[in-house]
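Hi everyone,

Forwarding the result from last night's run.
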Amino acid sequence: MNVAVLVDIIKETKANWRFIFEDPLADQINMISGMLVQLCAKPGEPDTVIRNYSVASWQDGTNRFELIVTNLEGGAMCDYLFKEAKIGDEFVYRGPMGVFTLPDNLMERDIYMVSTGSGISPFRSMVNDIFNSKKEFKNIKLFFGTRKEEDIVYRKELEFIQHCLPGFEYIPTLSREKVPGIAEGYVHKHYLDLIDKSDHKPLVYYCGWDRMVREGRDHLAERGFEMMKDIRVEIFG
């Protein structure tokens, strides 16, 4: 177990806030992009709460890590983070850990990243790691599904990387609003259309709510995709 101090809160959107933590006893956070941490709020108290969160930052040589959290009313950790937590609060955490990571060979096949809500966290980490480390890759498409334009997270950052990084495409999709220049409808439609027009299977990563992930797996299973060989998943809720 390690101790992390909350050092910043960034209100990215109304429902999605960024929480920046620092481990005062670590020289740097050692991680592979896509990993998660197990976060414990109010350790030692009767109402201690523990949740797993994918890390939204990447290994950058510092002792900080970032989580982006979607506010779900009634959720014990959400209620604490959004209503009670303040700069200087101490948390206990384990990790980073997990196997939801990119393959060693990024040139072997195209990669599709499909996310909703705070499920964009591991993909933001992966894309920034690739961008900053100048890793070679074939093609990567990041699909982010949300309801309205105001809910899009990390937009300017990912649009900037798309502009600078040939082969990377960022595709936000809106299910409840029509906005010129932004894809419309549920996220599944947009990557399935590409898959149906292609002769090659991409490696597809899903991160987000259980329903979205299950639907996506079913869609791909109908097209002959197999778990682990062609599909990787991380589920929230």
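The chain has a mean pLDDT of 92.

Cheers,
N.
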